[in-house]
Amino acid sequence: MAILGKLGRYQNFGLLVMRIGLGAMMILHGKDKLMGGVDTWTDLGHAMGKLHIHFWPAFWGFMCAITETIGGLFCMLGLWFRLVCLLLVINFIVAALYHFTTIAEIKECAHAIELASTFFGLMFIGAGAYSVDKS
């Protein structure tokens, strides 16, 4: 299609738009979890039980909240982008496992699977030219 054929020149801008959109949503997702305190973190951390990790649920819940919040900010900036994407992939795989084994319906864990696959793909693509790292 000739009309959209020249959009390939703007790949880095497209990556910037994706990073800002996904990063902002991650910050909004994680901010409430982060501000929820130890009780919220403990509830989140119990999801690690699906991987047979039953110790320190508050720590794992805090790590989930911090990964989404600070990871979202770093995603927007393009700072340590591939590492952040890897941490978010792990985060959403655990979320998908938790939702699937608790509710047993694929549609209930679809959002986590979609985000895990998106961040997995972005891990290979990288942050693009418009990032703090510029790598």
TrEMBL record:
The reply to whether Metal-binding figures as a keyword in the UniProt entry is no
Which sequence ranges are marked TM in the entry? 12-30, 51-74, 80-100, 112-132
Its localization reads: Cell membrane
Membrane topology note: Multi-pass membrane protein
**Stored InterPro entries:** DoxX (IPR032808), DoxX-like_oxidoreductase (IPR051907)
Q: Which UniProt keywords apply?
A: Cell membrane, Membrane, Transmembrane, Transmembrane helix
Record keywords: Magnesium included? no
Question: Where would you say this protein principally sits, based on its record?
Answer: membrane
Domain of life, source organism: Bacteria
Concerning Pfam families, the annotation shows: DoxX (PF07681)
Entry's family note: Belongs to the DoxX family.
Instruction: Name the PANTHER family for this protein.
Output: INNER MEMBRANE PROTEIN YPHA-RELATED, OXIDOREDUCTASE CATD-RELATED
Q: What is this protein called?
A: DoxX family protein
Species annotation: Nemorincola caseinilytica
